């Protein structure tokens, strides 16, 4: 006999399932999205948060600063500075646009992170290289011009100026190494003693429109796996003892987001095309708990932690990894031009 389901309530004759609503909440790794969601829901400015945007021929650059704990608590993000590049055209494999994004990323990163030439930078490529949407960090590390060893072994190549001591490592993930990423990074930092850590990771977005089109840079560090519900110990100045800049690109959206958006779109279309219909009245009558109950009933057989990514994600991840690597190479080494940087990527 089929189980009986009702809107807003799940009836099970055999057992009662305990629901962890936090697993079904709609969240985002992007500070800009969090800001836009709150502003749309409540209107007005957010206390303790400042934003400014600039349009540059298909690239929107937004600077967002969370100034205090009030803004942090409202946004659900740490106090600090967030720089976001929105580039819808990145979906279409435009080499000229990719080059412009890399150049702008390098230029903004130099201003975002001002370091003396003698400083040592450690780049951490977070993620699992065997899982395509999560392989961004390791791929960026593969394409970086690392020089720390050259200062010891071949100093004549780098001591003329224009090069900074750069090291890079992709530590893998807990499920493969059996070691927390933070433990591995902490050990490396303790040995290498960098002046700055740059952590590169794939993110999760709230909106489908931002997947594969957005780059976020933040000076607050990062929590590996937070976007897909596997939050590990954070990598930040407090945990590592050195400043940490996080660079990320959303490559996935969780199924909760898609389901929630589909419900909202259905209500909107019904109200527009068939005003006053009974289905719209029924759906708009659900409170947030009832809406989550519906999503639970849909996703429970699959497990709530279902992530969705476009089918062309393999090509995109390779392209955006090259964009980030080119930008990092130019930003970290004054002697490297964008034309030179392309020689290090593959």
Automatic annotation (TrEMBL):
Q: Which GO terms describe its biological process?
A: proteolysis; spore germination
Q: Which reaction does it catalyse?
A: Endopeptidase action with P4 Glu or Asp, P1 preferably Glu > Asp, P1' hydrophobic and P2' Ala
Q: Per UniProt, what is one GO molecular function of this protein?
A: metalloendopeptidase activity
Post-translational modification here is noted as: Autoproteolytically processed. The inactive tetrameric zymogen termed p46 autoprocesses to a smaller form termed p41, which is active only during spore germination.
Q: Which domain of life is it from?
A: Bacteria
Does the keyword section mention Protease? Answer: yes
Pfam family name, one? Peptidase_A25
Propeptide spans which residues? 1-29
Per the UniProt entry, the Enzyme Commission number(s) are: 3.4.24.78
Main EC class of this protein? hydrolase
Q: Which Gene3D superfamilies match?
A: HybD-like (3.40.50.1450)
Q: Which UniProt keywords apply?
A: Hydrolase, Protease, Zymogen
Q: Which InterPro entries match?
A: Pept_HybD-like_dom_sf, Peptidase_A25
Assembly and partners?
A: Homotetramer.
Q: What does this protein do?
A: Initiates the rapid degradation of small, acid-soluble proteins during spore germination.
Similarity comment: Belongs to the peptidase A25 family.
What name does UniProt use for this protein? Germination protease
């Amino acid at each position: 006999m089929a189980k009986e389901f009702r809107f807003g309530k799940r009836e099970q004759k055999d057992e009662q399932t305990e629901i962890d609503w936090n697993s079904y909440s709609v969240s985002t790794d992007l500070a800009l999205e969090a800001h836009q969601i709150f502003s749309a829901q409540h209107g007005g400015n957010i206390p303790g948060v400042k934003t400014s945007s600039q349009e540059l021929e298909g690239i929107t650059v937004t600077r967002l600063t969370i100034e205090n704990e009030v803004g942090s608590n409202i946004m659900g993000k740490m106090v600090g500075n967030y720089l976001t590049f929105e580039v819808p055209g990145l979906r279409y494999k435009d080499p000229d646009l990719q080059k412009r994004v890399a150049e702008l990323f390098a230029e903004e990163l130099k201003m975002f992170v001002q370091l003396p030439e003698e400083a040592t930078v450690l780049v951490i490529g977070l993620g699992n290289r065997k899982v395509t949407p999560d392989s961004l960090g390791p791929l960026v590390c593969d394409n970086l011009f690392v020089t720390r060893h050259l200062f010891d072994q071949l100093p004549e190549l780098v001591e003329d100026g224009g090069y900074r001591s750069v090291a890079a490592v992709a530590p893998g993930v807990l499920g493969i190494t059996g070691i927390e990423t933070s433990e591995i990074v902490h050990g490396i930092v303790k040995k290498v003693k960098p002046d700055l850590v740059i952590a590169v990771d794939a993110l999760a977005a709230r909106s489908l429109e931002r997947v594969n089109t957005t780059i976020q840079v933040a000076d607050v560090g990062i929590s590996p796996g937070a976007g897909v519900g596997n939050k590990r110990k954070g990598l930040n100045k407090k945990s590592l003892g050195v400043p940490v800049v996080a660079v990320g690109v959303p490559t996935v959206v969780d199924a909760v987001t898609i389901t929630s958006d589909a419900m909202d779109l259905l209500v909107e279309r019904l109200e527009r095309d068939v005003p006053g219909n009974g289905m719209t009245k029924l759906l708009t009558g659900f409170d947030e708990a009832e809406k989550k109950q519906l999503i639970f009933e849909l996703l429970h057989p699959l497990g709530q932690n279902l992530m969705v990514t476009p089918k062309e994600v393999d090509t995109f991840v390779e392209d955006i990894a090259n964009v980030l690597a080119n930008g990092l190479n130019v930003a970290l080494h004054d002697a490297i031009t964008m034309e030179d940087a392309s020689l290090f990527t593959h």
